[in-house]
Amino acid sequence: MSLRIHSDRLGNIWCGYTLSVIAAGAAISSVIAAAAAFAPNGFPNSDLGGKLGGAIALSMLFAVFAVPFTLLLTVLPAAAAILYAEPREIRSATAYAMLGVLVSAIAFAGLFGFLAWSSGNATTAWSLPTTVWQVAYAATLLVVPGLCGGLTYWAKAGRHAGD
Predict the structure, then answer these.
(1) Best CA proximity match to 35, nearest among 153, 149, 136
(2) Interatomic CA distance for residues 14 and 111, integer angstroms
(3) How confident is the model at residue 109 (pLDDT cuts 50, 70, 90)?
(4) CA–CA separation, 66 vs 84, rounded Å?
(5) pLDDT at 80
(6) Is 2 contained in some domain?
């Protein structure tokens, strides 16, 4: 097994990574917008259609900011995942979904580590969630974008790994 990636695959890999970043950023913004819209005091005096419309509008607004940050936070862990999967010719959708969740977890850990380092107060940045809802929300912010990004990458580039 050589650790080289053929040069004709680089365009396909870059396109797959770009699409996966867009999918993960859209997933993050959708989770945040849905949580804001459907919270008990999210959009008061709104029916289901109003809440859904507000969630869609917020999601599109958040995506403008989420996609570039997703690109910055995931470029190194995703490169490591690609350098692991491509030479080994891994073509399983399940493997790319798991790698996507792993990349998402590493990116969030890096973000919180940076926040702890920049604030000088590690206990505030690394404090654990206290309620079941906070744990579920944190897990959703890790799993959903990771699955979306990993499966999008698999659909564009991972199915043909090593070709």
Answers:
(1) 136
(2) 23
(3) confident
(4) 26
(5) 92
(6) no
Residue 1 inside a domain? The answer is no
Structure token digits, residue 122: 């590690």
Domain that holds residue 39: 7-160
Q: Give yes or no for residue 23 having a pLDDT over 90.
A: yes
For residue 19, being part of any structural domain is answered with yes
Query: Looking at the domain assignment, is residue 64 inside a domain?
Result: yes
Whether 101 contacts 59, CB under 8 Å: no
- The residues, ordered by sequence, that sit 6+ positions from 47 with a Cβ below 8 Å of its Cβ are none
Contact (CB, 8 A) for 152 and 104: no
> Looking at residues 95-121, what average pLDDT do you find?
82
For residue 59, count CB atoms less than 10 angstroms from its CB and return exposed for 0-12, middle for 13-18, buried for 19 or more. buried
**Total number of domains constituting the chain:** 1
User: How confident is residue 158, by pLDDT bands cut at 50, 70 and 90?
Assistant: confident
